[in-house]
Amino acid sequence: MYVNRRFYDKYVSTRDVELLHEYSLRVLKEVGVSFDCEEALEIFKKHGATVEGSIVKIDEDLLNQALETAPKTFTVTTSAGETKIGERFKPKTVGCYGPPKFLFEDDEYRVAMKDDMVKFLKLMDTSDVTDFVNNSAYDTADLDKTKDDFYMPQVAMCLKYSQKPTYGNVANSLNVRGKSLKEAAKGIAQLYKEFYDIWDRPVLLTNACALSPLGYSYEVLDNIMGLVEEGQPVTIITCSMTNLTAPAALLGSVIQNNATILAGIVLTQLINPGCPVIYGTVSSPTDMRTVSLAIGAPEAQLIQMASLALGRYYQLPVRTGIAGTDSLKPDYQAGVESFMILMTTYLGKSDFVLNHAGILQSYALGSYEKFVLDEEVNRILMRLNRGMDISDMRAEKVFAEIKKAGPLGNYLSGRTPKEYRQEHWLTKLFNRQAGNPQPIFDEIGDLRERASKEVEERVAGYTLPDLTKTQKDILNRYLPEDEKF
């Protein structure tokens, strides 16, 4: 059982949640949400929602019906095993998603290539704190873009390089041509089913972001409908910006986000009642001095904690928290902001986090070094969440130790006791050596140098998963030419 600290209770009370819910209902019923898709509009009409042009208005009864069928927990199954998602389980994680550029050890910024996608897949596959893999760089310049579908080759790369489950993202009109995006989404789900030879359960999880304020694009809707029809779970999220695509007041952002997410969840349950869905947000403040997204700001933490409280109110699996920063490098700012925002995941106890490691500059940049540094942040927060073992049995034991050592005694004798090994987290990268600093620095080097070394050792030691001939043949239908088996 993973400890649930309910960190958000310190900021959002039960009465607060009820007020947020009340006004979200008013937004759903009186303002509505835009759905840019005729098929989606017809589904809402069929089930009694008010449809005015592209605006859908949802009453409380229809919402409650959807919440009744949406499962509290679910399992993603692959040939490697089961990954359980929900409040009873440890939060599940996946690395940075899709930055168009990457920061490397020499402090130069460059456009990402397919090899960067592969390198990140190797880091995620070898990570002890990463549960899912995804394409950390996508639609890169060196992909063959003459094909009508160059999204599927990128999907196949996840299956080639890891046996961990995949956290996918929606296909778009740029990387899929000649067929609808709904067909593309269904094709992705069918590839995973065929690859794993699992046909009746969730085999992947996909991210679907609403269009703030209060809208869904046809691209996202096509993907949602295709995946849900195939019985595959989706994460419905918002990424609104205060005073730009959401009200200036944080309260307004939370209410608007909540109404938007709930509308998307209703659609999933109207299409396929009981299909798993995750309630999520990464909405953040806007820095109006530059009119830019500020994902590392403390207000982002507050918005996400309120959203986590709402997701718990609806008894849905929740995605919040990121190793988020607006910094340009893996520096002091990056560490502070990433730790703060990621607290929502482990101390607030959300169920899923995308971008748990490796992102910079409000999602625009990625960093191998920061990926392994953020892994340490994840480990620290996991340890904090465990807390201390305080019990009568343990107290009696330590009292006997104190009595034996007595005044001015010591506890250093023999082997390191198991209590020490059980209760202490020992860092792999951060310095804990004391003494004359210069010899220590000369020996271990700068933290980023240590992180870079860790990256290279992990990548060098990586081995491909042991796939069957059938699985290799399936992937060869989609993989880029230079990646085929």
From TrEMBL:
One Gene Ontology biological process: methanogenesis
Gene3D superfamilies documented for this protein: Trimethylamine methyltransferase-like
Transmembrane segments: none
Keyword Manganese applies: no
Xref: InterPro entries: MttB-like_sf (IPR038601), MTTB_MeTrfase (IPR010426)
Example of a GO MF term: methyltransferase activity
Domain of life the protein comes from: Bacteria
UniProtKB keywords: Methyltransferase, Transferase
Protein family membership: Belongs to the trimethylamine methyltransferase family.
Descriptive protein name: Trimethylamine---corrinoid protein Co-methyltransferase
Source organism of this protein record: Eubacterium callanderi
